[in-house]
Amino acid sequence: MLNLEKRYIYAAAVLALILAFFIGMKYAEMRNRENTPEEIIVEQAGGEKDLEQKQEEVIQVYVTGAVVNPGVYRLQPDARVYEAINMAQALPDANLKNINMAQKLEDGLAIIVPLPGEETPTDIDSGVLISGNTLSGTGKTGKVNINTATAQELDDKLPGIGPTLAQRIVDYRSTHGKFTSIEGLNEVSGIGDKKYADLKDMITVR
């Protein structure tokens, strides 16, 4: 009888050890699932999000003229003109004196670097281009697109256009739609024949 009891006790102890072993294995497996995979997934998702955000923030500008490597360059949104010109490598005799190297760039713009003696174009109707004059920082030079310019830009870049008249132009555009020609500026209250005559060579529509 005593031997039978010992056998039961021994069998129970063995069974308990086996159960404890399997419980320990399951517990370790669950701990691994909780820690490793989820951390990896979160890291990957965050990396993809950061990559997409960086791609959205990049702007593209076109550099041409007196440069070694004309072409389209990708830069950060807060990039300056000198960075784009450095990437394209200006020629030794390039005329950079009229270009404001500290000017902030915008997506889709182009920089035309002239040679000495060349006239620097101020506007090309087929696209929005930046050249020496429009980046010179001298203020009211170059053609202004009256369909896209803000009230502040109209005030800053066009002579005789103060804050009030600049806002009228923007309000007129918002109410009636974009100007189809520069002559449409005459429809804005406060733009008379004389003022239009003074402005017509400084404005464009696109």
Task: Please give a quick description of this structure.
By secondary structure, this protein is of the alpha/beta class.
Protein traits:
206 residues, alpha/beta, DNA polymerase, domain 1, 3 domains, four-stranded mixed beta sheet
Describe this structure in words.
The protein has 206 residues and is an alpha/beta fold. It folds into 3 domains: 1-56; 58-139; 143-206, DNA polymerase, domain 1 (Orthogonal Bundle). The chain has helices at 2-57, 81-88, 151-157, 163-176, 193-199; strands spanning 59-65, 71-75, 110-113, 130-131, 144-145, 203-204. The strands form 2 sheets. A 4-stranded mixed β-sheet has the order 2-1-3-4, with helices on one face. It has a two-stranded parallel ribbon with strand order 5-6. A hairpin with a 5-residue loop joins strand 1 (59-65) and strand 2. Helix 3 crosses helix 4.
Order of helices and strands: HEEHEEEHHHE
Q: In the residues, how many domains can be counted?
A: 3
Query: What does the average pLDDT come to?
Result: 74
Structural class: alpha/beta
End-to-end distance: 107 Å
Strand content: 5-15%
Q: What does the largest sheet look like?
A: 4 strands, mixed
> How much is the radius of gyration in Å?
35 Å
Overall strand count: 6
Major β-sheet strand ordering: 2-1-3-4
Count of DSSP H/I helices: 5
- Residue share in helix: 40-55%
